[in-house]
Write a structure and sequence with these properties.
Shape: globular
Number of strands: 43
CATH class of the domain at 3-40 and 482-636 and 717-746: Alpha Beta
Keywords: Hydrolase, Signal
EC number: 3.4.-.-
CATH topology of the domain at 3-40 and 482-636 and 717-746: Rossmann fold
Enzyme class: hydrolase
Number of helices: 12
Strand order of the largest sheet: 36-37-39-38-40-41-42-43
Protein name: Peptidase, S9A/B/C family, catalytic domain protein
Strand content: 25-35%
Pfam family, one: DPPIV_N
Largest sheet: 8 strands, mixed
């Protein structure tokens, strides 16, 4: 036994960690049994997902009752609810038509659409499309679904903009299309073809996404200079349909790779004149979005995302002079988080509603197109606009969601609001404390609101979108069966972060047989990748990442630290060129504060695990903070950000690729390993290049470090699947509890 392991064993003995059995067969059996005991089917009158019926104030949803699933419709004006159809009659009709028994209380209709009079349903059942006339009890098979196995473009593949149908002009007289890499138009009445552009080539071609001006006199298309693409290769060792391995190839741009260059080009149909702009204002492209014609046909608007993301511009190209002018410009010495952009061009063609983090919070601004300056700030305060749902120009109202508006509560909780274009008369439409999700009627007169917290069961109500008042209660979740099985809510815990003044919000999960007189090792589940917030805020009966692991005799925790989103720009910007930070100083401070409050949390036995960015961060934790984190399980980690996808890494780490990438690399820091580490990777991971994990493996071997490696054949981006989960259980039982995990064949899996 090496000194490190000996010290940990002594610490466990001194802390009383070996005073009682943990990680036993009974613990494992209970842990696996919780999947069913705490499953969502033990919660009734929950999981409401309303679907508004187009053009009406009616909607339908499924009631999950102890007796089964009931489809109901609600008339918001009349404040009444009834069954959407006769469940016994439809079950009988489906049974007869499909040849399979369908129980009335277990009907599941996919892609259900309901007509305004509620007498015709269209849905998918058994891979067939059906029409059901409720009053006539008439069921008609409308044919099989199209082949779902047709190849789909992978999300990493960049659109080359080479394939699309011809585009018809608004007046119906012409079509525009690409031929031999150039822009052509054809007069439909005569079939006469005309070439507009002359300079398109194989290596500098025009995009098929051609847009006509509203007056049908001009077209615009981007001229594209392509680049050589990078590909990642995978060997599928154990394919299901053949003995021999398969080689897979996937497009995969990485940080620093060259990117295509686009120039919006306008052509006059009658004269053939080309309006080709100078690229001075968009010459360092990460991406160009658009262009789109303005209503007067005199100019187009497009958006420019600068490489490195320190500038983002909304630009206007004149179709008369070819000049380009900025309408909106965002700049930052770190990064402009373009993933949060929102733009709405008002019908008057004079104003733009724009979203920006320029005042340290995410807010809406009214811009004047003519002056290219903000007229006024619409929303204001130390809170975050999350999503704009509707801009109602007729009534000059904006409907949006936001977090952090209400003081004295969890700042991540989302509510829904309405505000005037002038920034006045802010109305909260979902006032109760909780994490809200709302569905609005098409005319924005009503909303269905579902709200919950991790320790509060979901409540569903129908509200007025005028003032947020409850029009009609719909459902209150019944968790009595869940509680009868021993379920207890996780604890929401707050403590100061690294700066000693900023609250960090997280969760503490305990085993069902928790005894405060015992001492428990602590395991942190981490996902701290920038761009979002990750600690659950809604009611979850069974947390796949925390619940069963705690049952083995651990306290399992999760916290959002600095570098994550939706607190302030300053809070998130900690991550800039600093992903190796991973919020860990905040996490450590938070866990220590929990340990001070709860002495049964053993601060000498803290482990950590995660997947993807969490896989990188958990390994970083034991490499850079071994005095606190004593063991790590890391799945599919982006261990060296130079190996990972371009968009995610260049946003947070910047461009060009420099030392900031190298400094946070677990490959570069692998020689620092002094704690137990289990690395897990799916051999077909199409999110993070599997080579990222294997290069850590290579570095550890070269540094003569002991570690464990689990490769899951056929798996993609994964925490480890069932096999990896069991390996994770055993790993932490062995290294944090000092126990010997039970034989796998002695465990009852549920």
């Amino acid at each position: 036994m090496n000194v490190c392991k000996l010290g940990l064993s002594i610490a466990m003995l001194l802390s009383g960690g070996m005073a009682f059995a943990q990680g036993t067969v009974d613990d494992y059996n209970r842990a696996y049994a919780l999947r069913e005991k705490f499953s969502a089917n033990k919660v009734f009158y929950s999981n409401v997902t309303p679907q508004w019926i187009e053009g009406t104030h009616q909607f339908w949803y499924v009631r999950n009752t102890p007796e089964g699933r009931i489809y109901v419709s609600v008339n918001a004006d009349k404040k009444n609810r009834k069954e959407l159809f006769d469940h016994k009659r439809l079950a009988s009709a489906l049974s007869n038509a499909s040849g399979k028994e369908v129980k009335p209380e277990a009907i599941q209709l996919e892609r259900l659409r309901v007509n305004p009079s509620l007498d015709t349903l269209r849905f998918v059942f058994g891979n067939q499309r059906w029409m059901y006339a409720t009053r006539k009890n008439q069921l008609v098979n409308e044919g099989a679904l199209p082949d779902r196995n047709a190849p789909q473009k992978h999300w990493m593949e960049r659109d080359d903009e080479k394939e699309a149908a011809p585009v018809t002009s608004p007046d119906g007289k012409y079509t525009a299309y690409i031929k031999n890499q150039n822009v052509y138009v054809k007069e439909l009445a005569t079939g006469k073809e005309k070439q507009l552009s002359l300079d398109g080539t194989l290596s500098n071609y025009y995009s098929v996404y051609i847009r006509w001006s509203p007056d049908s006199k001009k077209v615009v298309s981007c001229k594209i200079r392509p680049v050589e693409k990078r590909y990642v290769y995978y060997v599928e060792s154990s394919p299901a349909d053949q003995l021999q391995p398969k080689l897979h190839k996937q497009e995969y741009a990485k940080p620093g790779d060259e990117l295509p260059f686009k120039i919006p080009c306008i052509y006059e149909v009658e004269t053939g004149r080309g309006i080709i702009p100078s690229t001075d204002l968009f010459d360092r492209q990460y991406e160009i979005y658009g262009p789109e014609w303005n209503p007067d046909s005199r100019s187009v608007t497009f958006e420019y995302n600068q490489r490195g993301h320190q500038a983002y511009r909304v630009l206007e190209l004149s179709a008369e002079t070819g000049t380009v002018r900025p309408l909106i410009e965002e700049t930052s010495d770190k990064y402009v988080n373009y993933t949060r952009r929102f733009r709405h061009d008002l019908r008057d063609n004079k104003h733009i509603i724009w979203m920006s983090e320029r005042d340290n919070w995410n807010h809406l601004y009214m811009y004047d197109r003519s002056t290219a300056q903000p007229v006024h700030q619409i929303t204001r305060g130390k809170w975050y606009v999350r999503e704009v749902l509707r801009v109602d120009e007729d009534n000059r109202q904006i409907y949006f969601s936001a977090n952090g508006v209400q003081p004295g509560e969890d700042p991540y909780l989302i509510r829904y609001y309405r505000i005037g274009f002038d920034g006045k008369d802010l109305v909260c439409l979902t006032p109760e404390e909780g994490m809200h999700r709302a569905w609005f009627s098409g005319d924005m007169n009503y909303l269905v609101d579902v709200h919950s917290m991790v320790n509060k069961a979901p409540v569903t109500v129908l509200r007025s979108a005028e003032d947020g008042k409850v029009v009609m209660p719909l459902e209150t979740a019944d968790i009595s069966r869940l509680e009868a099985e021993g379920w207890k809510a996780p604890e929401v815990f707050t403590a100061k972060g690294r700066d000693g003044k900023t609250d960090m919000w997280g969760l503490i999960v305990r085993p069902t047989n928790f005894d405060p007189n015992r001492k428990y090792p602590v395991i942190e589940y981490i996902y701290q990748g920038p761009g979002d917030q990750y600690v659950p805020k809604t009611f979850i009966p069974y947390n796949w990442y925390m619940t069963s692991l705690a049952e083995l005799g651990f306290i399992v925790v999760m916290v959002d630290g600095m570098g994550t989103s939706f607190r302030s720009r300053e809070f998130e910007n900690v991550c800039y060129k600093n992903l190796k930070d991973a919020g860990l100083p905040d996490h450590i401070a938070w866990i220590k504060a929990a340990g001070e409050k709860y002495p049964y949390m053993d601060m000498d036995r803290v482990g950590i695990y995660g997947c993807s960015a969490g896989g990188q961060e958990s390994t970083t934790a034991v490499l850079l903070h071994p005095e606190f984190y004593k063991a790590a399980y890391s799945a599919c980690g982006c261990h060296d950000n130079r190996m990972d996808k371009i968009w995610w890494n260049e946003l947070w780490l910047g461009y060009p690729v420099g030392d900031q990438y190298k400094e946070g690399s677990n490959v570069e820091n692998a020689h620092l390993l002094s704690r137990p580490l289990m690395l897990v990777v799916g051999e077909l991971d199409d999110n993070v290049d599997p080579a990222s994990t294997m290069q850590v493996v290579n570095a550890l071997i070269k540094a003569n470090k002991d570690f464990e490696l689990v490769v899951i054949p056929g798996a993609h981006h994964t925490m480890g699947e069932d096999f990896g989960e069991h390996k994770r259980y055993d790993f932490f039982v062995r290294h944090l509890q000092g126990g010997i995990p039970p034989e796998w064949n002695a465990i009852t899996y549920r």
